[in-house]
Specification:
Heat Shock Protein 90; 2 domains; five-stranded mixed β-sheet; two-stranded antiparallel sheet; 60% helix
Amino acid sequence: MKIGRLWLLIAAACLVPAVLDGSLSYLQARLAGRVPDWQEVFWQANEWLILGALTPIAYWLARRYPIRPPIIGRNLLAHAGGALLLCIGWATAGASLRWVLGIGPTEITRAQHLTSWLLTTIPWGTFMYFTTLGCVHAFGYFVEARQRESQAARLAAQVAEARLGALRMQLHPHFLFNSLNAITVLVRDQDTANAARMLELLSDVLRQVLRADPAHEVALADELGFLERYLAIEQVRFSDRLRVRFDVDDTLRDAAVPAFLLQPLVENALRHGIAQRADGGDVEISAKRDGDVLLLSVTDNGPGIAAVLPGRETRGNGLGLANTRERLTTLYGPSASLELHASGAGGAGTVALVRLPYRAAPTRGVASPADSSVGP
Protein backbone atom coordinates (compact mmCIF):
# COMPACT_ATOMS: atom_id res chain seq x y z
CA MET A 1 0.00 0.00 0.00
CA LYS A 2 1.32 3.42 -0.95
CA ILE A 3 1.73 5.90 1.88
CA GLY A 4 -0.36 8.42 -0.08
CA ARG A 5 -3.42 6.23 0.54
CA LEU A 6 -2.80 5.79 4.24
CA TRP A 7 -5.06 8.67 5.23
CA LEU A 8 -7.92 6.99 3.33
CA LEU A 9 -7.50 3.89 5.49
CA ILE A 10 -7.41 5.97 8.68
CA ALA A 11 -10.51 7.89 7.61
CA ALA A 12 -12.30 4.65 6.70
CA ALA A 13 -11.42 3.27 10.15
CA CYS A 14 -13.75 5.90 11.65
CA LEU A 15 -16.66 3.95 10.16
CA VAL A 16 -16.27 1.37 12.92
CA PRO A 17 -16.84 3.71 15.91
CA ALA A 18 -19.54 5.50 13.85
CA VAL A 19 -21.56 2.30 13.51
CA LEU A 20 -20.90 1.31 17.13
CA ASP A 21 -21.82 4.73 18.54
CA GLY A 22 -25.00 4.93 16.45
CA SER A 23 -26.01 1.41 17.47
CA LEU A 24 -25.26 2.17 21.12
CA SER A 25 -27.50 5.24 21.05
CA TYR A 26 -30.30 3.17 19.49
CA LEU A 27 -29.97 0.31 22.01
CA GLN A 28 -29.85 2.63 25.00
CA ALA A 29 -33.13 4.18 23.93
CA ARG A 30 -34.76 0.75 23.48
CA LEU A 31 -33.47 -0.53 26.81
CA ALA A 32 -34.85 2.57 28.53
CA GLY A 33 -38.26 1.88 26.99
CA ARG A 34 -38.11 4.94 24.76
CA VAL A 35 -38.63 5.34 21.05
CA PRO A 36 -35.18 5.93 19.54
CA ASP A 37 -34.53 9.51 18.52
CA TRP A 38 -33.30 9.00 14.98
CA GLN A 39 -31.81 12.48 14.82
CA GLU A 40 -29.74 11.65 17.88
CA VAL A 41 -28.73 8.27 16.45
CA PHE A 42 -27.79 9.95 13.17
CA TRP A 43 -25.74 12.60 14.94
CA GLN A 44 -23.92 10.07 17.15
CA ALA A 45 -22.85 8.10 14.07
CA ASN A 46 -21.91 11.07 11.92
CA GLU A 47 -19.82 12.67 14.65
CA TRP A 48 -17.15 10.03 13.96
CA LEU A 49 -17.53 10.40 10.21
CA ILE A 50 -16.81 14.11 10.59
CA LEU A 51 -13.62 13.21 12.45
CA GLY A 52 -12.67 10.81 9.66
CA ALA A 53 -13.19 13.57 7.09
CA LEU A 54 -10.80 15.82 9.05
CA THR A 55 -7.95 13.28 9.30
CA PRO A 56 -6.26 14.64 6.13
CA ILE A 57 -5.23 17.60 8.31
CA ALA A 58 -3.14 15.29 10.49
CA TYR A 59 -1.85 13.38 7.47
CA TRP A 60 -0.80 16.49 5.56
CA LEU A 61 0.93 18.06 8.58
CA ALA A 62 2.67 14.76 9.36
CA ARG A 63 4.15 14.73 5.86
CA ARG A 64 4.95 18.44 5.96
CA TYR A 65 6.48 18.52 9.46
CA PRO A 66 8.08 15.13 10.20
CA ILE A 67 9.11 14.51 13.80
CA ARG A 68 12.80 13.87 13.38
CA PRO A 69 16.02 15.70 14.25
CA PRO A 70 17.09 18.45 14.12
CA ILE A 71 13.76 20.30 14.03
CA ILE A 72 11.65 18.22 16.41
CA GLY A 73 10.75 21.15 18.71
CA ARG A 74 9.51 23.41 15.93
CA ASN A 75 7.55 20.64 14.27
CA LEU A 76 5.92 19.61 17.55
CA LEU A 77 4.58 23.17 17.85
CA ALA A 78 3.19 22.87 14.33
CA HIS A 79 1.46 19.63 15.31
CA ALA A 80 0.04 21.20 18.47
CA GLY A 81 -1.54 23.83 16.22
CA GLY A 82 -2.75 21.07 13.90
CA ALA A 83 -4.38 19.22 16.79
CA LEU A 84 -6.14 22.42 17.88
CA LEU A 85 -7.31 23.03 14.30
CA LEU A 86 -8.74 19.51 14.11
CA CYS A 87 -10.55 19.99 17.43
CA ILE A 88 -12.05 23.30 16.29
CA GLY A 89 -13.18 21.78 13.00
CA TRP A 90 -14.64 18.73 14.73
CA ALA A 91 -16.48 20.79 17.35
CA THR A 92 -17.80 23.30 14.83
CA ALA A 93 -19.05 20.66 12.39
CA GLY A 94 -20.58 18.58 15.21
CA ALA A 95 -22.38 21.54 16.81
CA SER A 96 -23.59 22.73 13.42
CA LEU A 97 -24.98 19.28 12.64
CA ARG A 98 -26.90 19.29 15.94
CA TRP A 99 -28.46 22.64 15.08
CA VAL A 100 -29.39 21.42 11.58
CA LEU A 101 -31.03 18.32 13.07
CA GLY A 102 -32.84 20.44 15.67
CA ILE A 103 -31.38 18.65 18.68
CA GLY A 104 -29.12 21.43 19.92
CA PRO A 105 -29.57 22.74 23.51
CA THR A 106 -32.07 25.57 23.95
CA GLU A 107 -31.07 26.74 27.43
CA ILE A 108 -27.72 28.20 26.28
CA THR A 109 -26.65 30.26 23.32
CA ARG A 110 -25.03 28.74 20.27
CA ALA A 111 -21.72 30.40 21.15
CA GLN A 112 -21.84 28.84 24.61
CA HIS A 113 -22.75 25.48 23.11
CA LEU A 114 -19.87 25.67 20.61
CA THR A 115 -17.41 26.59 23.37
CA SER A 116 -18.65 23.75 25.57
CA TRP A 117 -18.44 21.27 22.73
CA LEU A 118 -14.95 22.46 21.83
CA LEU A 119 -13.74 21.82 25.39
CA THR A 120 -15.35 18.37 25.22
CA THR A 121 -13.68 17.43 21.94
CA ILE A 122 -10.16 18.68 22.77
CA PRO A 123 -9.07 15.53 24.69
CA TRP A 124 -10.46 13.11 22.10
CA GLY A 125 -9.48 15.29 19.17
CA THR A 126 -5.90 15.67 20.42
CA PHE A 127 -5.67 11.95 21.05
CA MET A 128 -6.98 11.11 17.57
CA TYR A 129 -4.69 13.66 15.94
CA PHE A 130 -1.52 12.29 17.51
CA THR A 131 -2.68 8.71 16.93
CA THR A 132 -3.02 9.52 13.25
CA LEU A 133 0.34 11.27 13.37
CA GLY A 134 1.94 8.20 14.92
CA CYS A 135 0.39 5.91 12.30
CA VAL A 136 1.67 8.07 9.46
CA HIS A 137 5.19 8.21 10.90
CA ALA A 138 5.25 4.50 11.75
CA PHE A 139 4.14 3.55 8.27
CA GLY A 140 6.59 6.02 6.75
CA TYR A 141 9.47 4.52 8.74
CA PHE A 142 8.34 1.04 7.68
CA VAL A 143 8.34 2.02 3.99
CA GLU A 144 11.76 3.67 4.34
CA ALA A 145 13.14 0.58 6.10
CA ARG A 146 11.85 -1.65 3.30
CA GLN A 147 13.39 0.65 0.71
CA ARG A 148 16.73 0.66 2.55
CA GLU A 149 16.59 -3.12 2.85
CA SER A 150 15.87 -3.47 -0.86
CA GLN A 151 18.64 -1.01 -1.72
CA ALA A 152 21.06 -2.84 0.58
CA ALA A 153 20.14 -6.16 -1.07
CA ARG A 154 20.75 -4.70 -4.53
CA LEU A 155 24.05 -3.22 -3.38
CA ALA A 156 25.11 -6.54 -1.83
CA ALA A 157 24.25 -8.33 -5.09
CA GLN A 158 26.27 -5.80 -7.09
CA VAL A 159 29.22 -6.14 -4.70
CA ALA A 160 29.03 -9.94 -4.89
CA GLU A 161 28.85 -9.78 -8.70
CA ALA A 162 31.90 -7.52 -8.85
CA ARG A 163 33.74 -9.70 -6.34
CA LEU A 164 33.02 -12.89 -8.30
CA GLY A 165 34.06 -11.24 -11.54
CA ALA A 166 37.34 -10.10 -10.01
CA LEU A 167 38.00 -13.57 -8.61
CA ARG A 168 37.31 -15.19 -11.94
CA MET A 169 39.59 -12.77 -13.77
CA GLN A 170 42.25 -13.48 -11.15
CA LEU A 171 42.02 -17.21 -11.77
CA HIS A 172 42.28 -17.07 -15.57
CA PRO A 173 45.80 -15.55 -15.68
CA HIS A 174 46.83 -17.93 -12.90
CA PHE A 175 45.86 -20.88 -15.11
CA LEU A 176 47.41 -19.25 -18.20
CA PHE A 177 50.78 -18.56 -16.56
CA ASN A 178 51.04 -22.11 -15.25
CA SER A 179 50.30 -23.50 -18.71
CA LEU A 180 52.85 -21.19 -20.34
CA ASN A 181 55.45 -22.28 -17.81
CA ALA A 182 54.80 -25.90 -18.77
CA ILE A 183 55.20 -25.03 -22.47
CA THR A 184 58.45 -23.22 -21.67
CA VAL A 185 59.81 -26.39 -20.08
CA LEU A 186 58.90 -28.42 -23.17
CA VAL A 187 60.55 -25.87 -25.46
CA ARG A 188 63.66 -25.82 -23.28
CA ASP A 189 63.77 -29.63 -23.51
CA GLN A 190 63.43 -29.25 -27.30
CA ASP A 191 60.23 -31.30 -27.25
CA THR A 192 58.84 -29.38 -30.21
CA ALA A 193 55.98 -31.75 -31.06
CA ASN A 194 54.51 -31.74 -27.56
CA ALA A 195 55.06 -27.99 -27.19
CA ALA A 196 53.14 -27.38 -30.43
CA ARG A 197 50.40 -29.77 -29.33
CA MET A 198 50.16 -28.02 -25.97
CA LEU A 199 49.92 -24.59 -27.64
CA GLU A 200 47.05 -25.83 -29.79
CA LEU A 201 45.21 -27.18 -26.75
CA LEU A 202 45.88 -24.01 -24.79
CA SER A 203 44.50 -21.97 -27.68
CA ASP A 204 41.27 -24.02 -27.61
CA VAL A 205 40.95 -23.60 -23.85
CA LEU A 206 41.57 -19.86 -23.95
CA ARG A 207 39.08 -19.48 -26.80
CA GLN A 208 36.46 -21.16 -24.63
CA VAL A 209 37.37 -19.03 -21.61
CA LEU A 210 37.11 -15.79 -23.60
CA ARG A 211 33.81 -16.89 -25.15
CA ALA A 212 32.41 -18.09 -21.85
CA ASP A 213 29.02 -16.97 -20.60
CA PRO A 214 29.58 -14.39 -17.82
CA ALA A 215 27.12 -16.33 -15.63
CA HIS A 216 28.85 -17.58 -12.50
CA GLU A 217 27.15 -20.98 -12.58
CA VAL A 218 27.20 -23.53 -15.40
CA ALA A 219 26.01 -27.10 -15.88
CA LEU A 220 28.34 -29.74 -14.47
CA ALA A 221 28.63 -31.24 -17.95
CA ASP A 222 30.06 -27.94 -19.26
CA GLU A 223 32.51 -27.73 -16.37
CA LEU A 224 33.69 -31.29 -16.97
CA GLY A 225 34.04 -30.59 -20.69
CA PHE A 226 36.33 -27.65 -19.91
CA LEU A 227 38.27 -29.84 -17.48
CA GLU A 228 38.81 -32.42 -20.23
CA ARG A 229 40.56 -29.81 -22.37
CA TYR A 230 42.71 -28.68 -19.46
CA LEU A 231 43.70 -32.27 -18.68
CA ALA A 232 44.59 -32.83 -22.32
CA ILE A 233 47.16 -30.04 -21.90
CA GLU A 234 48.52 -31.62 -18.74
CA GLN A 235 48.55 -35.02 -20.44
CA VAL A 236 51.05 -33.64 -22.93
CA ARG A 237 53.28 -32.56 -20.07
CA PHE A 238 52.96 -35.73 -17.98
CA SER A 239 52.58 -38.17 -20.88
CA ASP A 240 51.82 -41.68 -19.60
CA ARG A 241 52.66 -40.68 -16.00
CA LEU A 242 49.15 -39.22 -15.59
CA ARG A 243 46.07 -41.41 -15.39
CA VAL A 244 42.69 -39.72 -15.02
CA ARG A 245 39.31 -41.26 -14.28
CA PHE A 246 35.86 -39.66 -14.16
CA ASP A 247 33.18 -41.08 -11.87
CA VAL A 248 30.12 -38.93 -12.57
CA ASP A 249 26.50 -39.98 -12.29
CA ASP A 250 24.74 -39.17 -15.57
CA THR A 251 21.77 -37.74 -13.68
CA LEU A 252 24.02 -35.02 -12.25
CA ARG A 253 25.27 -33.56 -15.52
CA ASP A 254 22.62 -30.85 -15.39
CA ALA A 255 23.57 -29.82 -11.83
CA ALA A 256 24.58 -26.17 -11.38
CA VAL A 257 28.18 -25.61 -10.29
CA PRO A 258 30.39 -22.51 -10.16
CA ALA A 259 32.19 -21.93 -13.44
CA PHE A 260 35.89 -22.81 -13.41
CA LEU A 261 35.46 -24.74 -10.15
CA LEU A 262 37.24 -28.03 -10.77
CA GLN A 263 40.33 -26.89 -12.70
CA PRO A 264 42.09 -25.34 -9.64
CA LEU A 265 41.43 -28.53 -7.65
CA VAL A 266 42.84 -30.74 -10.39
CA GLU A 267 45.81 -28.39 -10.82
CA ASN A 268 46.44 -28.67 -7.09
CA ALA A 269 46.34 -32.47 -7.31
CA LEU A 270 48.79 -32.49 -10.23
CA ARG A 271 51.21 -29.99 -8.73
CA HIS A 272 51.38 -31.36 -5.18
CA GLY A 273 50.43 -34.96 -5.86
CA ILE A 274 51.31 -36.44 -9.23
CA ALA A 275 54.35 -34.20 -9.90
CA GLN A 276 55.91 -35.43 -6.64
CA ARG A 277 55.90 -39.08 -7.82
CA ALA A 278 58.60 -40.35 -10.17
CA ASP A 279 56.21 -42.88 -11.67
CA GLY A 280 53.28 -40.46 -11.91
CA GLY A 281 49.93 -41.36 -10.43
CA ASP A 282 46.13 -41.33 -10.61
CA VAL A 283 43.59 -38.53 -10.40
CA GLU A 284 39.89 -39.24 -10.00
CA ILE A 285 37.13 -36.66 -10.47
CA SER A 286 33.78 -37.71 -9.06
CA ALA A 287 30.31 -36.21 -8.57
CA LYS A 288 27.66 -37.63 -6.28
CA ARG A 289 24.47 -36.41 -4.69
CA ASP A 290 23.56 -36.72 -1.03
CA GLY A 291 20.00 -35.45 -0.65
CA ASP A 292 20.06 -31.72 -1.36
CA VAL A 293 23.87 -31.62 -1.38
CA LEU A 294 26.10 -32.05 -4.42
CA LEU A 295 29.47 -33.64 -3.60
CA LEU A 296 32.36 -33.01 -5.99
CA SER A 297 35.75 -34.50 -5.28
CA VAL A 298 39.21 -34.59 -6.83
CA THR A 299 41.37 -37.39 -5.46
CA ASP A 300 45.03 -38.15 -6.12
CA ASN A 301 47.41 -40.83 -4.85
CA GLY A 302 50.33 -38.47 -4.27
CA PRO A 303 52.42 -38.19 -1.09
CA GLY A 304 49.61 -36.42 0.79
CA ILE A 305 49.17 -33.14 2.61
CA ALA A 306 51.67 -33.94 5.37
CA ALA A 307 54.43 -34.45 2.80
CA VAL A 308 54.59 -30.82 1.70
CA LEU A 309 58.10 -29.59 2.36
CA PRO A 310 58.69 -26.80 4.94
CA GLY A 311 58.94 -23.36 3.44
CA ARG A 312 56.86 -24.23 0.37
CA GLU A 313 53.31 -23.10 -0.32
CA THR A 314 51.02 -25.24 1.78
CA ARG A 315 48.62 -27.33 -0.20
CA GLY A 316 45.45 -25.85 1.24
CA ASN A 317 46.34 -22.16 0.96
CA GLY A 318 47.39 -21.68 -2.67
CA LEU A 319 45.85 -19.02 -4.90
CA GLY A 320 43.58 -21.49 -6.69
CA LEU A 321 42.15 -23.03 -3.52
CA ALA A 322 41.83 -19.72 -1.68
CA ASN A 323 40.05 -18.29 -4.71
CA THR A 324 37.73 -21.29 -4.90
CA ARG A 325 36.84 -21.08 -1.22
CA GLU A 326 36.05 -17.37 -1.53
CA ARG A 327 33.87 -17.93 -4.59
CA LEU A 328 31.94 -20.69 -2.81
CA THR A 329 31.38 -18.45 0.21
CA THR A 330 30.23 -15.57 -1.98
CA LEU A 331 27.83 -17.71 -4.00
CA TYR A 332 26.40 -19.99 -1.32
CA GLY A 333 27.46 -18.68 2.11
CA PRO A 334 27.76 -21.38 4.78
CA SER A 335 25.91 -23.90 2.57
CA ALA A 336 29.09 -24.67 0.62
CA SER A 337 32.58 -25.73 1.67
CA LEU A 338 35.91 -26.98 0.35
CA GLU A 339 37.89 -29.45 2.46
CA LEU A 340 41.23 -31.18 1.94
CA HIS A 341 42.16 -34.38 3.75
CA ALA A 342 44.12 -37.57 3.27
CA SER A 343 42.55 -40.16 1.00
CA GLY A 344 44.62 -43.20 1.89
CA ALA A 345 46.14 -45.01 4.84
CA GLY A 346 49.09 -43.40 6.56
CA GLY A 347 48.25 -39.93 5.26
CA ALA A 348 49.02 -40.81 1.64
CA GLY A 349 46.95 -39.28 -1.13
CA THR A 350 44.70 -36.27 -0.96
CA VAL A 351 41.05 -35.65 -1.66
CA ALA A 352 39.59 -32.18 -2.23
CA LEU A 353 35.89 -32.36 -1.39
CA VAL A 354 33.42 -29.65 -2.40
CA ARG A 355 29.94 -29.51 -0.89
CA LEU A 356 27.35 -27.18 -2.36
CA PRO A 357 23.55 -27.01 -2.62
CA TYR A 358 22.16 -29.18 -5.40
CA ARG A 359 19.99 -27.54 -8.04
CA ALA A 360 19.59 -27.89 -11.78
CA ALA A 361 21.38 -25.42 -14.04
CA PRO A 362 19.09 -23.22 -16.17
CA THR A 363 20.99 -24.14 -19.35
CA ARG A 364 23.38 -26.85 -20.41
CA GLY A 365 26.11 -26.99 -23.01
CA VAL A 366 27.07 -29.85 -25.27
CA ALA A 367 30.36 -30.79 -23.63
CA SER A 368 30.54 -34.13 -21.88
CA PRO A 369 33.23 -35.72 -19.74
CA ALA A 370 35.21 -38.78 -20.60
CA ASP A 371 33.87 -42.00 -19.22
CA SER A 372 37.13 -43.49 -18.07
CA SER A 373 40.31 -41.69 -19.01
CA VAL A 374 41.94 -38.76 -20.74
CA GLY A 375 44.38 -39.66 -23.49
CA PRO A 376 47.29 -37.71 -24.90
